[in-house]
Design a protein that fits this description.
mainly alpha, 2 helices, disordered N terminus
């Protein structure tokens, strides 16, 4: 099941990482409330990183 993040700054993260994270939570039977809490935490992280001017580019 895909857990989408819509209209958030978290969309700037590599989509595969965001999708994988929320799919793992869902697959581990986390409650929807807990997943929502994690979604909020991801959004706060993204906002903090953006405010600091850090580039999200991932280098492999």
């Amino acid at each position: 099941m895909k857990i989408e993040i819509r209209n958030t700054s978290a969309q700037k993260l590599p989509l595969s990482l965001v999708e994988d994270f929320f799919e793992r939570l869902h697959g581990a039977n986390y409650s929807q409330d807990t997943i929502a809490d994690y979604r909020h935490a991801v959004q706060a992280l993204v906002a903090t990183v953006e405010e600091a001017g850090i580039d999200w580019q991932i280098r492999v």
